[in-house]
Amino acid sequence: MKDLKNAKIAIVCDWLTNQGGAEKVILGLHHLFPNAPIYTSLYNPEKIKGFENAKVITSYLQKIPTANKHHQFFLHLMPDAFEKFDLNDYDIVISSSHSCAKGLILAPQTMHISYCHSPMRYAWENHQQYLNEYAISGIVKKIAPFFIHKIRLWDRLSADRVDHFIVNSECVQKRVKKYYRRDSEIIHPFIDPSNFQYNNKRQEFYLSVGRLTAYKKYDLIVEAFNKNGLPLKIAGTGSMFEKLKKTAKSNIELLGFVPDNELKKLYSEAKALIFPQIEDFGIIPIEAMASGCPVIAYKKGGATETVNKNTGVFFEEQTVASLQTAINELGKTKFDHQAIAKHAQAFNRENFNQQILEYIASKWHHYQHSPIK
Q1: Are 191 and 344 in contact (CB under 8 A)?
Q2: Which fold has domain 4-190+348-369?
Q3: What is the pLDDT of residue 140?
Q4: What radius of gyration do the chain's Cα atoms show?
Q5: Residue 270: CB atoms within 10 Å
Q6: Which neighbouring-strand residues pair with 313?
Q7: What are the φ and ψ backbone dihedral angles of 273, each rounded to 5 degrees?
Q8: Which of 134, 270, 340, 367 is deepest in the core (most CB within 10 A)?
Q9: For the whole prediction, is pTM greater than 0.70?
Q10: Topology (CATH) of 193-346
Q11: Domain spans of the chain?
Q12: From CA 82, how far away is CA 77, in angstroms rounded?
């Protein structure tokens, strides 16, 4: 019998090539288990910070020139890459997965807990959206469904290799039940509220933050603010940057990459954060609220679990008219900015750490006592 402190643990994630919500969870797990090596398909230390002292072990894909800068071109090889990892000497494997990291093949004595950010987005309910919205050739669009079908089958089968699922939100919990037929435990991702600057005095500009990709609907925001003429700042880079810059009028500033200290200042000054996309959880609204900034969010996905009538306003449809209605409503609403900041305190690192440790310790205790692994 081993307690959790003496267990040999490994952490696994899909890739470490760009900074996002999933990567923050991996960093949190690394801080909890600093001696656990991190296995991943691809690693780009120039883009990802915080893992300088971690032992990062990459797959054979890392040997392909520039692969760690274009992970999306190697998704079809990732199932094989993760199946080739040998982690049978570990007692516990914790995977953080929205793609292939959960597909490890492990020995019966190794317990596998997967923190699932979502079943593969491009394989399940979003597959048509990905094909339609991303700029790929007509030939690729014709053959892509065949490959998506194959990876969907692999994704479903690989889910059976996981012993226990943790999910980041209720909407992901529903997907895991729907597509994998598995129960799961909700443990929300975290922020460090003390890192954000609370400010009761707000300026008149609106703010949007994130990777500028098609499904995040930044074109909807630009179209709405082109019409209403209100000041808007967009912080982030991505494939949509140049297109948005060409269509945006003078009241809209595309800031590109914004360092953390400047982003925190923007959160503390903005009239409101605009959050138009469907996210599995959505860490950006939590960061904004930690600064006392109200949120205008599309009423689907993880935002419905973090934003409420005291911290923001929802819009019902991803249309300019619906978004404008919410902007008008927010303009008429008086918010308690200190109460908004207090609401975000619930999503702190200490709560995350406690829930993760208690969950893993409980499952590890029962796993060791189970007669059949």
Answers
A1: yes
A2: Rossmann fold (3.40.50)
A3: 47
A4: 21
A5: 26
A6: 296
A7: -95, 135
A8: 270
A9: yes
A10: Rossmann fold (3.40.50)
A11: 4-190+348-369, 193-346
A12: 9
